[in-house]
TrEMBL record:
One Gene Ontology term of the molecular function aspect: DNA ligase (ATP) activity
Signal sequence, renumbered to the chain: none
Protein name: ATP-dependent DNA ligase
SUPFAM superfamilies: DNA ligase/mRNA capping enzyme, catalytic domain (SSF56091)
Family: Belongs to the ATP-dependent DNA ligase family.
A GO BP annotation: DNA recombination
């Protein structure tokens, strides 16, 4: 089951009583425990890939779980040196196998944060309302006395507490927002019946290139200057609305020779191999943007940011300097 992004915490409304879960920045994963001695623990990504061979530490802890169990949750890793959850560390672990996977398990231990139970004792539970599935999940953790690496996702039905999570807890690296679910909902695979709300920060960036035309840009490619004055790429916007595209198109100017991004290639999305067809523009316009807290170690926003407005009253010298890591998301 999937979640659709929203701008504000939904109230009960027509959905009835709501549950609010903390949203972690990891890999959405289904966990299957063996139904017989010939099988082992399986971890399946949203795209159907089986990745349990990358996580021998989770496989070794599977004896704490009962047979015939299917859990839905988030796979995360803890960087023991940095003392925080690490998405980059999670990527390293999912790329490692064999001896490398076993070695990384010590410095980047994995955790499975369970937020739903879809099958128990071989019986399917997806037709049960969320309220009952959650009670079964809590009972499972209590009866089995499950501890690390198995973690029960925090949940509340208190809207005020959920708002506090969103405003303060999301300052913690690896916790990016909340997911809202109706207590009476069954689990519908592939259906966007949940709501997700990420904490967002408003900041500024320099427009270095566009897609589309000079009159009607579609995307803005953004940058910030580093301490040496070099313009570093930090990400791109979501597609511009028509009125915003006209506004930007009336102000951008095609770049002269010597643009700092000459010869660069830009991916269509973070981690994608598809390349955008871009037009370089003079890097002298400042965009006010709204961005979530997902920033990779190189200082690039992993998700498309939202363009809010042009800051014609702000010079590029006033834009926050480029910095690597999560702090680049704030301004």
């Amino acid at each position: 089951m999937l979640a659709q992004a929203v701008e504000a915490v939904p109230g009960p409304g027509v959905l009835g009583e709501l549950a609010y879960e903390q949203k972690f920045d990891g890999y959405r994963t289904l966990l299957f425990t063996p139904t017989g001695p010939e099988n082992g623990l399986q971890l399946q990504t949203r795209h159907g890939s089986l990745i349990q061979d990358r996580f021998p530490d989770l496989v070794a802890a599977a004896d704490k779980l009962p047979a015939g169990l299917v859990l839905d949750g988030e796979l995360v890793v803890w960087d023991t040196k940095a003392g925080r959850l690490s998405f980059e560390g999670l990527q390293r672990r999912t790329a490692a196998r064999g001896r490398s996977a076993r070695g990384l398990a010590a410095s980047l231990p994995a955790f499975f944060i369970a937020f739903d139970v879809l099958q128990q004792d071989g019986s399917e539970l997806i037709s049960y309302p969320y309220r009952q599935r959650r009670l079964r999940l809590e009972a499972l953790f209590a009866a089995r006395r499950l501890t690390s690496p198995w973690t029960l996702c925090p949940m509340t039905t208190d809207l005020i507490k959920a708002q506090q999570w969103l405003e303060s807890w999301t300052e913690i690296s690896g916790l990016e927002g909340i997911v809202v679910k109706a207590m009476n909902q069954p689990y519908r695979p592939g259906h966007r019946g949940w709501y997700k709300l990420r904490r967002r920060n408003t900041t500024e960036a320099i427009i270095g290139a566009i897609t589309g035309t000079m009159i009607r840009p579609q995307l803005l490619l953004l940058g910030r200057r580093d301490a040496h004055g070099h313009l570093r790429s930090i990400g791109r916007t979501a597609p511009l609305r028509a009125e915003m595209a006209r506004l930007v198109g009336g102000n951008v100017i095609a770049a002269n020779a010597g643009h700092p991004w000459e010869g660069w290639r830009f991916a269509s999305a973070w981690g994608s191999r598809d390349i955008l067809d871009v037009t370089l523009v003079r890097p002298d316009l400042v965009a006010e943007i709204s961005a979530d807290t997902a920033v990779d170690r190189s200082g690039v926003f992993r998700h498309a940011v939202r363009f809010k407005r042009l800051r014609l009253d702000v010079t590029v010298e006033e834009v926050p300097l480029f910095s690597a890591g999560p702090s680049a998301a704030t301004g």
